[in-house]
Amino acid sequence: MKKTLTITGLSLLMQACVAAPNTPPSSSQPDDYSSRFSVEAIKQRREAEYAQKLADLNKLDPAEEVKKALKSNKVYLLAYQSGRGGETITPGLVEPQVIEVKCRILQLDGMGDTIFGENHLKYRVALRKYASEFNALMYPNCR
Length: 143
Hints:
Elements: H1 2-18, H2 28-36, H3 39-58, H4 62-71, E1 76-81, E2 88-89, H5 95-100, E3 104-107, H6 118-138
Helix pairs in contact: 3-6, 4-6
């Protein structure tokens, strides 16, 4: 009896391992996969992201954002890296002032060494301008 159950169990297990799905393989799957992860598709997605980020950034007023930060007792400056392994740039401050700063520094996103397209470039220019105005207003509170 034990031998019969073992053989039956192994038979069922072997059938389950060899069973194939009834659906035919889709020939569009490789094309879909390669088009989703192509360089062009990635650039298009990133361009759409930066277009949205630019629209959101254009709604912000640096003076209002500084007031909000000070009300919640959050004193910080905005900075970004200049390329791979480059120096930290804090827009809106003169070089010697950066050394004297005694407040938190937040790194800006989207300022790397790759530009995905026109929207990304516009976003970077607007972000530098915003950070420069923000830092100039926030710096006096960093002592």
